[in-house]
């Protein structure tokens, strides 16, 4: 059974930090790039960050570059990924999701349509 579970969200003041986690099991996620996306009320889901299957490469949305860091740990049957979020701003408020790229590509993919195995999301609220 495929399980993808995000955690670590919460309420934080502007300028604060949070670390989100994504725990995935049930299939071979170690062969898939992992992306973080977010969706604010009334807005479309948007790309935040992606990390390659090895964890050695990453790409970020311009809005979070320099503030967020994505990483992952691959074990035999599980993947745990992290999104360290620093210097948070009110505009970072959203539900954050992790997902895994459906088919391998030699480059990092930022479109959410290329991802599957979505978690249920974790709410991040940044107060001003």
Q: Return the average pLDDT rounded to an integer.
A: 95
Shape label: globular
Query: What's the total helix number?
Result: 0
Name the assembly state.
Answer: single chain
The count of strands amounts to 11
What level of helicity do the residues show? under 10%
Uncertain segments: none
Strand content: over 45%
Spell out the helices and strands N to C.
Answer: EEEEEEEEEEE
**Distance between the first and last residues' Cα:** 40 Å
The biggest beta sheet reads:
7 strands, mixed
Question: What is the gyration radius calculated from CA atoms?
Answer: 14 Å
User: What structural category characterises the helix and strand content?
Assistant: mainly beta
Gist of the model:
The protein has 128 residues and is mainly beta. Helices cover 0% and strands 49% of the residues.
Task: Name the features.
4-stranded antiparallel beta sheet; 128 residues; 7-stranded mixed beta sheet; 11 strands; 49% strand; mainly beta; 0% helix
Topology of helices and strands:
Blueprint: E1 3-7, E2 10-13, E3 18-25, E4 34-39, E5 46-51, E6 58-60, E7 68-74, E8 78-85, E9 94-101, E10 115-116, E11 122-127
Parallel strand pairs: 2-11
Antiparallel strand pairs: 1-3, 3-8, 4-5, 4-9, 5-6, 7-8, 9-10, 9-11
Please characterize this protein's 3D structure.
- The protein is an all-beta fold and 128 residues long.
- It is built from no helices and 11 strands.
- Strands 2, 4, 5, 6, 9, 10 and 11 form a 7-stranded mixed sheet that branches.
- The chain is globular.
- The mean pLDDT is 95.
